[in-house]
Structures are given as C-alpha cells and as structure tokens.
Amino acid sequence: MHVEYSGTGDPARSLALLWRTRERASRSGDLGVDQIVRAAIDVADAEGLAALSMRRVAERLGVGTMSLYTHVPGKGELLDVMLDTVHGETPRPTDVPGGWRGRLERIARDNWALYLRHPWLLQVATTRPPLGPQVTARYDYELRAVEGVGLTDLEMDAVVTLVDSYVHGAVRGAVEAAQATGRTGLTDEQWWHAHAPYLEKVMDPARFPTAARVGAAAGQEYQAATDPTRAFEFGLARVLDGIAALIADRCAGSPPPATPR
C-alpha cells in the first residue's frame, strides 16, 4: 500500500502555510492556497494518494505546475495542509447528551465518517502530525470530552489517542469493503453467496468444529464474511467500557500508575 508521511516539509514553511501567516493577498478569482488544497483533496478522494502530485493538482486547476509553487512550497507542505483542512470537517457540537461517554461516541462516529469520505487518510502516517489550526482545534475539542471526569492530563491524552487509534484501525475494513465492491463489481453479499456453496463442501465440522459453527452463524447473520460497521460498534462499546472502568477507579481514589522512566 502506498504510504505518505506527514510532517516531512520544511517546518517554517509548513507552519506558515498551515496558519496562513505569509499568504499572499490575491484578487478575486486568482489562484490561492485554498483552491490548491481543495483541488489536491479532490484528486486524493477520486484517484487515491498515489496519484497526488503537484503536476496532477495543476492539471485539475487548469494552470501550469510552476504557478502552484508561488503559494505552496512542495508536496510535503501541501499534504500537511490537506490533512489539517479535512480535519476541520468534523462537527464539534457542545450539546451532546450522555456525558463523557456520549461525547466520545460522537467523536468516534464523526471520525469514522471522515475516513469514509476521505479513504486516503489511511495512507498517511501521522506520528508527526501537521500542527495546524484545525488539527489543534480537533485535539482541544476531543480532550474537552473527558475534561473534569477525574483523569490526569496524561490520561486524558491517552484516552483521546486510544479512541482515535481504535477508529483508525476499525474503519480500514469498511473502506476496503467499499473499495472491493468498486473494483470487483460484486457486493459483499454477492461475493458471499458465490462462495458459500463451495465453502460448505470443504469446511469439515469435525476438523474445524468451532470455526464451522461460529462461521456459519456469522455468515448467516452478515450475509458476508464480516460486517465492519457492526464490528466497529461492538469494539467501540468495549473501548468505552474500559475507559469507564478507568474513570471509576480514579473516582474511587485509585492513583494513576507510576510513569516508567
């Protein structure tokens, strides 16, 4: 799988671009950073991250490639701004019912939807995240979901990271299922019905008793090999149960474990 890395651009140029501290004033209709970034996102959405290049973005805008460099130093900086921009799409309501759990559920589902809209996000390694205004606002919003529930600052950060990492892993199955339909011309249900008769012939319940029993039940229920959405909801509930246990421990007076050094 094609993988790109965020944070590879020049730090000063990337931060200036992310926060628009050096953006040149442009007349109405002139090429600008926002137009370039939106075109780049459209390319990645439609063709995948491997197709993204300064030349391809210029073609989409109908301009010369060199004209982009007046506004964006290079692909590394462009990718950072693309990431920051799409993270600004997630809603940040303040009236979510259900306390901290309801807030984290909403955050997880909104991030799930974001990945489905922009599958190329799964192709970007963000251990060095773009430190832009939208990514920062998102982090602040997600932290406030568990503000005042008894966790330390480090635990709040860990909880947000846990939920975000869970969504990142769980949504891959849903994205791959959607892409498989487009590339094979078969839905999961059609694929399952085509394979099920042959699977019944080779699956020996005496040799694989547990797999045969559970697999048959799951296949009957899902009409597919898996159900990524159901798996996501099941896993999310278990993650939140674990966070609930942590919060209960802190409310009961249990101190956080010592930090390894």
From TrEMBL:
Coiled-coil regions listed in the entry: none
DNA-binding region extent: 53-72
InterPro entries the UniProt entry points to: Homeodomain-like_sf, HTH-type_TetR-like_transc_reg, HTH_TetR, Repressor_TetR_C, Tet_transcr_reg_TetR-rel_C_sf
The keyword Protease belongs to this UniProt entry's keyword annotation: no
HTH tetR-type domain residues: 30-90
PANTHER family, per the entry: HTH-TYPE TRANSCRIPTIONAL REGULATOR RUTR, TRANSCRIPTIONAL REGULATORY PROTEIN
Record's protein name: TetR/AcrR family transcriptional regulator C-terminal domain-containing protein
Organism name: Micromonospora humidisoli
